[in-house]
Amino acid sequence: IQSFPSDEGWPFAKYLGACGRMVAVNYVGEELWSYFNAPWEKRVDLAWQLMEIAEQLTNNDFEFALYLLDVSFDNFAVGPRDGKVIIVDAENVLVADKRLIRQNKPENWDVWYESKFDDCDKEACLSFSKEILCARVTVDHNYYAICQNLLSRHATWRGTSGGLLHDPPADIAKDGRLEALLDECANPKKRYGRFQAAKELREYLAQLSNNVR
């Protein structure tokens, strides 16, 4: 958290200090879970922010990729004043130095890596290999984690299913584009499909949230 301070635009809670193994961060707001049944407009905005976070942590000017290894509705919070989504549990974040990977050129370092969809029967599952995340420059892990565990119909939490974007308005459901993008982002059918779906999903959610604001 100290290396990626909120003051510099990183989506983490503000670090206040530490004592032994305890870390104090500021209270951000209610957890994302409490917005599960919020009005559609609010949920679209939160979903857009989550995809933006996935993008920022994957591609940034600092050339660090920050991979979220534990993604659930309890690990994000929403600011009561500004409505901004923040990661509150930063313990399970893997930091990969892309410059170093390019320099050291481990095997297959420049081959795009696609995360495997995990259809397990527990809540908030993710499958990943730390070795691979630390040895590739282009990885879709964050898109996969956010789509599978928070946004898509595959997301399950506290007995619910359907994800944050459950029960869309009739016209959006009928159009089918949102569901198709969420599905491709969570469990892609095409090679490298998740990279493209994540990009289109970010744009589509931005468009939807502008339309509903």
TrEMBL record:
**What's a Pfam family this protein contains?**
PIP49_C
Q: Which InterPro entries match?
A: DIPK2A/B (IPR020519), FAM69_kinase_dom (IPR022049)
Q: What is its main location?
A: secreted
Could you tell me which residue ranges the FAM69 protein-kinase domain spans? 2-188
Q: Does the keyword Signal apply?
A: yes
* GO cellular component assignments: COPI vesicle coat; extracellular space
Compartments it resides in: Secreted
**What GO terms describe the biological role, i.e. biological process, of this protein?**
cardiac muscle cell proliferation; regulation of phosphatidylinositol 3-kinase/protein kinase B signal transduction
**Positions of transmembrane segments:** none
Q: Which UniProt keywords apply?
A: Secreted, Signal
Q: Which residues form the signal peptide?
A: none
Q: Tell me the protein family, please.
A: Belongs to the DIPK family.
Q: What is this protein called?
A: DIA1 protein
